[in-house]
Prior knowledge:
Helix content is 37%, strand content 12%. It is an alpha/beta fold.
Amino acid sequence: MSLSHRAGYVVGVLITLLALSHDCQARVHSHGRFVRIKGTRFVLHRSYFVFNGFNSYWMMHVAVDTSERYKASKTFREAAAAGLSVCRTWAFSDGGDRALQISPGVYDEHVFQALDFVISKARRHGIRLILSFVNNYKDFGGRPQYVEWARNGGVNVNGEDDFYTNPTVKKYYKNHVKKVITRMNSITRIAYKDDPTIMAWELMNEPRCQADYSGRMVNGWVQEMASFVKSLDKKHLLEIGMEGFYGVISTLVLLFSHGLFCWKDGLIFVNMFRTSFIFL
């Protein structure tokens, strides 16, 4: 499955499942307030917030080239005109072409300014953002790049799934999360953690784990990182980035999961959402 297909699938699941339960619409006309949660519903300006959303993972990558920034502006403008009000995009690019994070803790300011631009344009067109911190896949670096950085630094790592348990790799990730959340936007002069344009943070795009099919390894990582994010930013919503797969729970779940039973992915959706920090 291609990167764009995978990413589109994720946001489709995320937005569809959460939005369909709401029965009252509220378009974003102002970015003065944060989207909140009341029970099982999103709330904005004391009204239920139902939205149509889209996935454009490429925004920051394209905006690095100033001559190409019109593509991001045009996308937001046309999306707003079509009634779309939430966009999911990357807040990472680890190593490689147009890298935001060149090496652990080393950032390209020009690329960060491209992300600043994306956020400022979303704000201008009344669109809120879901920003993802890292990829599960090697595209744009992701988990493989983090583990490779650790290996190159002399850390004993066995494979990509050490991303979830190795102290050095987890430190790299936390440093990136802090760098993004505390970033001061060079255009709007609003810190990311204080900007209601950002609707939610996403821990990872489509987490996977082959080392532990029970889901406990990823669940432990989610709990630790969700707690860390909330220690830095209590204003924004937080989500995992999962598609809703079920691991080995029971035969009953297998029968009624409608193709979402993927026991080799090391994920159990319902267990993840027992984490108190998710979506708060």
